[in-house]
Each structure stands twice: as structure tokens, then as C-alpha cells.
Amino acid sequence: MGMSIPQYLGQMDIRKGVVGLATGAGFIYLLYKAIRAGIKCQPPLYTASPICIARLAVERERHGRDSGELRRLLNSLEHKQDEYAKSMILHSITRCVYLLEAEASSCTTDDISLVGSMLDDKDNSVKIQALNTLKAFSGIRKFRLKIQEHTVKVLELISTIWDSELHVASLRLLNSLPLPDYVHPQLRRVMPALMEILQSEYILAQVQAIRLLSYLAQKNDLLYDILNCQVHSNFLNLFQSTQPGSLLFEVLVFAERLSEGRNSPHYRAVKWHYNEQSLHEALFGDESRLADRLLALVIHPEEEVQIQACRVIVSLQCSQDVGVRPSSCRPSHSYFNSGE
After folding, report:
1. Which residues form the Armadillo repeat-containing domain (predicted)?
2. pTM greater than 0.90 (yes/no)
3. How far apart (Å, rounded) are the C-alpha atoms in residues 99 and 56?
């Protein structure tokens, strides 16, 4: 039966309304399902999302209970995983340790051993993430002795693998720990590698290396090994004002500690011999130009660099000898003349 044009258009309007209503209702229903699914969904086992981990931390604080996320991650690490999965799991464990303090504190030394075993993985990215995780756990006092057990392995990584990111992670871990005396023989063997890292062009690794060397310079039985370590002929470039202020400051702290150490009665009681390319000759030898570099840094734009440069100058001018009172000082023969 035929319809007039007005009747046909009217029926089409009704159909459009029904379809539009159905489409709108369907959209709302799908949106509801998506939101509901989003609320119920669990994060992946080894998600690296900081938002996810932060949400767990907030949940723990709000409800006063263990989220279980850190334990699930550690348990998953025990299972066979590919290198990428292990890296992601370790990355998430590191975040959990920093954000979920109570859960991290409830971990065990077996968990530390599990993470430490990842240092033997063939993949450098896994080693780096394991180092970062150990660094996170080192902030919890009860784990420090257990983490110290991996010090020798960490030193081995520094000396045998030339990878800047691995060096940074290794050195950050070592700088967060008190190093026991029994690792001093290994530290002597790794000294040339530390000097090479210091003279590299990767500032993050350089800063971490110089911090460790400054710490070791305060150990009487390691001071000579540091001072006699071979350095490049351009070592004093580290004292140029064009270097980043953060690196300059650490280098100046290192120089001050070396100067103080070599002027101590304990060290001066022995007649030491140094090779011609040694750190000692570069800094304190008769041909050293350290004084010129220091005087230029006195007018450095950064105040902490200025102050530290002055401290090194004073340390060089005031050498303590056996039988001389600690409060007295006398000018050194090879650094600054009276005109300067």
C-alpha cells in the first residue's frame, strides 16, 4: 500500500528516534561496563606504572592493611621469566620498596638473596634493575648487612663491564652502604677502574665514582693505593671551571681529603714512592698546576665551589708534621708563593 511523502517522512522520524534511543542506551550500557571493569581489574603482576604503585600505597595507608603487591612481585621473580619480564618485575619491586615502607620492612633476608642472585644474570638491564632494588632495600637498616654480602660481586661488575648505566647503579649502591674492611683487597683491585670512570665523560658516573673515592681516601690502608693510582696526563681538567658545578665540588672534596690524609702523622711516618703518572704527582708533585686551577675556582659563580676551593688551598698550605701542634701550619714548598 502506497504512502504519501509526508507519511513516509513521519515514519522515518519515528524510526530515527527509536534507533537514536537504542544507540544512546547501548552507549550508556557499554560505558557502564567499561567503568565497572576498570574498577574491578587488577594491575598486571609486574606493571611498571607509578600510578598503579602509588594507588597501592594510598590503599595501604587508607585501610591500614598489606596490599600484598610487593610479596606477589617477589614470588613472581622466583619463577622462570625472560629478561624483559625480570627487569620489569625488579623495577616494580624497587618502586614498592620506596612507597610501601611497611611491606618492604616485612620482607626477609631470603628476599634480598633472591634479588642479589639477579646480579649473575647475563643481561645487563637485569643487573642494573637488581642493583637499583638493592639500593632501595639498603634504606632499611636490618637489610644492610645482607646487602653487604654482595659488595664483592658489585665491585666485580664495575671492573669487568664497561657500561655507564651499570656503573652508576653499582656506585650508587656502594655509596649507600658502609663498606666492611674485608672488601679492601677487592677495592684495591678495582681502583684503576674507578679512576677510569672518574675520567670518563659521563657525569652521573663521575660524580658517583668521586664520592666513593672520597670515602675510601679516609681509610689509612687505602690512601696510598689511591694516590699511586695511574691517571691520564690531563687529569687536572677535572678542576676546570667549565666542568659542572656538582662535579667540581665533589672533585674538590676529594682533593681536600687526599691532602689531609697525606699530611697526617700516620701517613708521613712512611717514605712513600709514587710512579710518574700517579694521582699524587698530578695533584701534589713539583710539576703540578693544581694551584693555578684552584685560584681560578675561587671566583667560580657557585658559592659552594668557591668555598671548597678555599678549603683545599688552606689544606695544601697547612701541612702537619710529626711533633708539630695540630693548630699550627706552615706553607707548602711547591704550591703557593707569598705573592699569591
Report:
1. 68-279
2. no
3. 9
